[in-house]
């Protein structure tokens, strides 16, 4: 409208920043509508006849991008017990979850939210937060898939460590109740406050009795002090010919040939483009002394993983970077493909979305057709041990449920999720039922792998 000079015009300006997953206005009742697709009691159902794939074939199909000589170690670790199988069979559970109806309420999935993928993690300010710690399979997807994997892991881990089934049930119910309670709170919380929320050491230990908490606090402090680059240098390095080198422990930690050293050098050089200038300025004050190939975890065995020892040029202070190959998420066959053209970028971006604070050294790059992400090694990480947390499974599971709710609320619609979950214990009872049914399935799938190894159709290393 034209106005004469000096005229005053009153107007209301409403500028909205559009989200990539922007929801329609009627989505306020989206959670209730989702119950028509998947009744809450339906979360507890598992029908083996509907899975539509063979578990062993799904595991073996992951070989294509892995180092062939390391595959026997992978299968040895997976065959050790139903728990180690579960850790290595994220692809199997992804296919199974995808065979069931889902709510359609999306979040950034962790993708492998089993109970030991929660731990203490150092922030850039050197504070310890309790958080998710593994993001190799992260991808947007239905929120309940993370919840179901976490619930099942509590039962599988409980069986592994002699936890009474009723106690495992209480752990699953407590985890689910904590998730629901926190999600209801987040549904009424300003978005900024959700992103600032976190669980520190005190918040984690607050779930335990005072005596256990005091003992655990001392143990955490000791472990955190040791799990640094300086601690790793004392444990993993030796001086040979006047030069600090990484100590070998074949086949789990071995020096690599010239071609792989060149690969690692290319990764570190390319990685500079994905980190902020001030981080690269800091790293430029270090030189690479040594590189080894690592065998880590269960599910990651066979992927190219390298440990690079750096040394500060001025003081000789050691610093370790871990370089890890990234492939497609196990969920990409069933959901929308990642919007990132580099799977390392997918992992790092998912980590930043889900974690309350992320290692400032994380980044990614590609060399040829291989994608990689880079992170600091042993950044004061305190990783739980199944035998230790077994007697305190309910308390630990409660903290995990709170963390998972916060991660999902950051990336998804807390109001819709809370609306779907409702109140009462219906979802908790469904999670207990699903966890036991799928733990039984996991045992059958583990037995299938063991039989294939015994028949000689799947290679297996002895003394892994």
SSE order in H/E notation?
HHHHHEEEEHHHHHHEEEHHEEEHEEHHHH
Q: Provide the gyration radius in Å.
A: 23 Å
**Oligomer class:** single chain
Count the DSSP helices.
18
**Main sheet overview:** 6 strands, antiparallel
What's the helical proportion of residues? 40-55%
Number of strands: 12
The domain tally reads: 2
Strand percent estimate? 5-15%
Describe the global form: globular
Please tell me the overall pLDDT. Answer: 88
Distance between the termini: 77 Å
Determine the structural class based on helices, strands and strand pairing. alpha+beta
Order the strands across the largest sheet as they lie in space. Answer: 7-8-9-10-12-11
Low-pLDDT runs: 1-11, 22-28
Organism: Rhodococcus cerastii
Protein name: DUF2252 domain-containing protein
InterPro entries: DUF2252
Biased composition (Basic residues): 30-39
Explain the overall architecture.
This protein is of the alpha+beta class. The chain has two domains: 26-42 and 54-225 and 381-454, no CATH class; 227-376, no CATH class. A hairpin with a 2-residue loop joins strand 5 and strand 6. It is built from 18 helices and twelve strands. The termini are far apart. Strands 7-8-9-10-12-11 form a six-stranded antiparallel sheet, with helices on both faces. A two-stranded antiparallel ribbon has the order 1-4. The longest helix is centred in the C-terminal third of the chain and has 29 residues, at 426-454. It has helices spanning 30-37, 55-60, 71-79, 82-88, 90-98, 143-160, 165-186, 191-196, 201-205, 210-226, 229-236, 258-271, 277-283, 343-354, 386-389, 393-411, 414-421, 426-454; strands spanning 106-109, 118-122, 128-132, 139-142, 237-240, 243-246, 253-255, 286-294, 305-312, 318-326, 363-367, 370-376. Helix 1 crosses helix 17.
């Amino acid at each position: 409208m034209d106005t004469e000079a000096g005229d005053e015009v009153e107007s209301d300006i409403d500028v909205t920043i559009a989200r990539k997953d922007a929801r329609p206005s009627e989505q306020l009742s989206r959670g209730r509508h989702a119950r028509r697709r998947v009744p809450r009691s339906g979360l507890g159902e598992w029908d083996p006849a509907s899975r539509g794939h063979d578990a062993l074939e799904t595991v073996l199909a992951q070989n294509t991008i892995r180092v062939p000589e390391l595959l026997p170690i992978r299968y040895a670790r997976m065959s050790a017990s139903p728990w180690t199988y579960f850790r290595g069979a994220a692809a199997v559970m992804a296919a199974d979850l995808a065979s069931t109806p889902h709510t359609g309420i999306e979040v950034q999935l962790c993708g492998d939210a089993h109970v030991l993928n929660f731990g203490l993690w150092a922030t850039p300010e050197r504070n310890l937060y309790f958080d998710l710690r593994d993001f190799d399979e992260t991808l947007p997807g239905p929120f309940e898939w993370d919840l179901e994997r976490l619930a099942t892991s509590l039962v599988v881990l409980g069986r592994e460590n002699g936890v009474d089934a009723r106690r495992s049930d209480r752990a699953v119910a407590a985890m689910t109740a904590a998730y629901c309670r926190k999600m209801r709170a987040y549904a009424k919380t300003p978005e900024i406050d959700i992103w600032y929320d976190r669980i520190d050491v005190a918040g984690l230990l607050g779930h335990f009795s005072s005596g256990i908490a005091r003992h655990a606090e001392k143990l955490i402090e000791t472990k955190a002090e040791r799990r640094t680059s300086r601690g790793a240098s004392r444990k993993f390095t030796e001086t040979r010919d006047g030069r600090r080198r990484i100590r070998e422990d074949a086949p789990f930690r071995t020096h690599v040939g010239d071609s792989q050293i060149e690969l690692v050098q290319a990764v570190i050089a390319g990685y500079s483009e994905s980190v902020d200038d001030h981080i690269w300025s800091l790293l430029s004050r270090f030189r690479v002394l040594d590189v080894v190939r690592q065998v880590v975890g269960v599910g990651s065995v066979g992927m190219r993983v390298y440990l690079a020892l750096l040394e500060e040029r001025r003081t000789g202070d050691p610093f370790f970077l871990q370089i890890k190959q990234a492939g497609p998420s196990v969920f990409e066959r069933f959901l929308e493909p990642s919007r990132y053209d580099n799977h390392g970028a997918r992992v790092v971006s998912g980590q930043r979305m889900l974690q309350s604070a992320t290692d400032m050294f994380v980044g990614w790059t590609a060399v040829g057709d291989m994608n990689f992400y880079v992170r600091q090694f042993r950044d004061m990480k305190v990783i739980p041990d199944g035998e230790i947390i077994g007697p305190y499974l309910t308390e630990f599971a409660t903290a995990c449920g709170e963390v998972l709710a916060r991660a999902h609320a950051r990336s998804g619609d807390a109001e819709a999720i809370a609306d779907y979950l409702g109140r009462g214990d219906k979802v908790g009872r469904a999670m207990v039922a699903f966890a036991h049914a799928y733990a039984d399935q996991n045992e059958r799938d583990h037995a299938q792998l063991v039989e294939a190894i015994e028949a000689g159709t799947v290679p297996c290393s002895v003394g892994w």
